[in-house]
Input
Amino acid sequence: MKHLVQTFVKGITRENPLMILMIGLCATLAVSTQFQGAVFMGLAVIFVLTMSNAIISIFRRFIPNEVRIPMFIVVIASFVTIVDLVMKAFVPSVYAFLGIWIPLIVVNCIILGRAEAFAYHNGLPAAIADGLGMGVGYTIVIVVFAFVRELFGSGAVKFFGATLLALPSWYAPPSVVLLFPGAFILFGFFLAGWRALVSRPGGGGGCS
Amino acid sequence: MSVLSQMALLFIGAALVNNMLLTRFIGLCPFFGVSSSMSTSVGMSLAVVFVMTLASGATWMAWKFVLSPLGVGEFLYIPAFILIIAALVQFVEMYLRKASPVLYRAMGIYLPLITTNCAVLATATEAAKPGFFKMNIPLGPSLGLGEALVYTLGVSVGFGFALLTFAALRERLEAAPVPAALRGAPIAFISAGLLSFAYVGLAGWFGL
Amino acid sequence: MSSSSARLVISVAVTCVVAAGGLAATYCVTAPRIAAQERDAEQRALKRVLPDAARFEGLDEKSVARLAAAVTAGEIEAVWKAVDASGADAGWCVKTSARGYGGPVRMVIGLDRNGKVAGLTILAMNETPGLGTRVESEPWFMRQFLDLPPGYGERDVKQMDAISGATRSSKAVKNCVTAAGQAYAALSGGKAVSQ
Output
């Protein structure tokens, strides 16, 4: 049990996919203009990561080593398609906002990376704990980052029309926070802050 | 608007105004991964131009002649496209190794990485599946094969251009005195942000 | 794990078949809801821009294409004739789109019997959140179009204010409104002949 908790926690701190392993960055910068969209992006990643980890771990003895990558890709792509269809059916406004980023979850290196590095070699409980931990680690970063960007870029954070937090009206939001240079620069400082306060990289990691 | 000028607009729009890396954040993994040296960036850029163009052509035909006529496109496009890209990359690698050792040496080791490069899947999806192409050019509901290829060529050339400029920037950064907290990834993000400011100025060119 | 090539092919094939089957099932479950969502969104938009109308009758494709040819400011995608509870003419709804900053801005615009804007709403847009999307989140911007005179034209719309910092998104909305006005002019012109 203790082992499972450790597996879960390391996804958030020591091996945080975004802050330490530096994978899956694209979507984080792109969808963090809107808090609501970022929440759903995080949920989608948690779902796909946990489910694909679980399925791959269950069937790992039946997956021949030579064709494991195409098979992983099929499994992951299937769960991504489920997310795609379900979001289109139930939260169309979020679907419209996320657009191309939903199919792109397939090539989010976190998911294929965890399938290859963890789920293929570990039992079901550990694989689920790893998937959840990595997914939650990803979600925390993207949600906090989006919250900051939306708050300072547009003056108020909204969730399905309800205002969660608003800055006083004398604050004139600088639009650069929401434009693409702002995303890069803020993320750079965010990264520096995280590494100073939460966890530092211990080498390794990364993809393509 | 004549066909030729429309194609030129499509190319410029895809390469500069809607630059995939710096204005849309697609393909950031290789952007930060390989940009630390100029020679790897050249190899990666070549490989991306090559594979992306082939991939868009292949997914466009798959959509037009298989997925769409069979009515399975809506729920099978994600697995189908990613598998097409993965298979294509395999074939290109095998072919290049035999047919052109020079080209293989230049971009061979980057080919496997390209399967999980989100820029390739994103462009192939936008070119093939109607509803994802969002540029300000009146081209009807879906792209023709020629338009899809010009668009992809524009995207990949823009990708290479941004990658090479950034690599040049980072080589200079090696020698710069950077505060300890920002060293490594954080300063890379901040410089990418400054570079992307240049692209803010391009917004609105030719009404794109 | 040593594997014969037959085993490799079979395992990949089985995975693909299972995955495709699962996805087809998911699609069958969600497809009706997706269609319903799209229809609902359109109906809600129609009700919102012309609250007095009871029924909306869509124009056939041929007439829409004829209208679209007469409109220069944007694309006309659909037109509905609104009828109130007593069956009397209640105006028109025009679904139109124009180029914005991040792609087309798609709107539904309701015009009353005299060609005055009765309501307008954005169906879909891809503008920068918090920046271009202010055309929707700042209520004064959309409301100003309600003051346009009946049978307004391009020149009237041009005089309306734009949101600073979101010029191109504002222009897309203005173009949509102009397009609706042009469509109304073409519609009422045609009607005068037939009645």
Observations:
- The radius of gyration of chain B is 18 Å.
- The CA atoms of residues 170 and 188 of chain B lie 7 Å apart.
- Residues 38-70 of chain B form the longest helix (33 residues).
